[in-house]
Amino acid sequence: NDNTIKDVTYTATDFTSNGITANPANGASLTVANHNAKPVTLTCSGETANTSNLKVVAKAVTTIAVKTQPTKLNYVEGQTLDLTGLVLTITYNDNTIKDVTYTATDFTSNGITANPANGASLTVANHNAKPVTLTCSGKTANTSNLTVTVSTPVATTFFSVEGKDIIDPATSEPYMIKSINIENDVWWQSSWRNFRRHNLCSYRYYRK
What we know:
The chain is mainly β. The protein contains four helices and 15 strands.
């Protein structure tokens, strides 16, 4: 009441020592619903003053980037995509950054999708030399290209004993036979179980 003027620059200490409060307070978490287009109200000794209106926008994704590639990038046709090891970095418009390591739960909860999806069966025609495209809030990022190759049959010659199934000597398990060569004739079979009654007959096999 003596008409003196005092400028108080905000610090928590100076506002407190001068009896000044702010609503919302410094450090308060702001929301669009409660604070957008509204001022900060300052109060001192029953007198109030307002700042200019705040502009509060929804938190949003600004960019995404692959931080760590999936552990597996090389496949044989028919194998399924495995995104284990993939880490995606999300940057938001409030300058916060979040790293999300692939799990089905964490990708879903963060709104991240992958194309092709984890577990998808891969083909040469559709997936070789192409990346996995990751999408989050309309932003996209790509992994390194996948390598998908044609499954190469393994061919060899064995001899059977009459009346017995043909066994893989390495595993002691029967083979799935796709073709049999007996005296230059090729017999197509659906299963190793159909190959019987031939003594010391050679054959070519394709491991399934």
